[in-house]
Amino acid sequence: MKQKDVSERSQLVLQALVKRYIQEGAPVGSSTVRQEAGLPVSAATVRNIMSDLEHRGYLHAPHTSAGRVPTAAGYRLYIDSLLQVDMPDAATFQALQNELSPDRSSRDLVQVTSNLLADITAQAGLVTVPRPDSAQFRQVEFLPLSGNRVLVILVLNQHEVQNKIIHTHQEFDADQLRSAAAMINERFSGRSFQDIEGIIAQELREAKSRIDRYMEETLAFANKALHVGQSSTEDYLMAGESRLLESASPEELEHLKSLFQALESKKDVLHLLERSSAAEGVKIFIGEEAGFNALGNFSLVTAPYGDGKKTLGVLGVIGPKRMEYSRVIPIVDLTARMLSQALSN
User: What pTM value is reported for the model?
Assistant: First the structure.
């Protein structure tokens, strides 16, 4: 149903009911709604309006003698048409500004952001880790170790440094490693790992066709060394899962186990986040709208972040369907903007 299908009086009733349910987490009766909305009508009239909203699918009664609670469709109408957001306060802005420093590596920024979202919203915060092919190669250095081992010191983007030991099929001396590093830095600095992977694969084929053993070995070594930048297996970082337990109602506690299992398996959650990365601004998945059962009693509020040139990932907050959307939505939006600013600097 669209907003135009619901009368102004019905909208006021729905708005009052959702706000009270978010505050208390218990079914809301007609007298409470009448008082909350300030309507100059009888409780019986409000009951009739609530019955009509229930018939339309915006409310439902969990027990025959209880009040009503909003459905996913009710939350959707409330969020899309009736919600009045509260802009983040000065303390929230300052906390984000202090922690999301451009001097941090992208990895640190992702970790800090998930913690900030959890702390500020009192829900669970998650941030996808930028894909390795979105990182930009800057510089590499090699140090020979004992045996056929080499220490790779890899600089990504502006500040991020990764160290890893690789095993080679032969022993290289310091001069050979300096020469290899110079060649790699000259040819690939400033490129994404996705571009580098394609270039090396093409040039390896050409070197083999020319029977250029030296170039083939150098490129194979470069491929192994630069693969360090693509070694991360984490898809997203999450913080604040315990906060879901602390704020959960008895009904929500029953469904948390399946939610945690879905978060651990990642497949469905990553599918939602992938959909969010293609959107502009904040996107909200309410309960069963998300398309998988584990999120049935919860909502996910997301926003994409980037580096000023392209989208690098998505951040968001998971909480009960009755989360305080008026506060959470602008916080998610502001955090995405500030993380993007830190990464672009």
Answer: 0.72
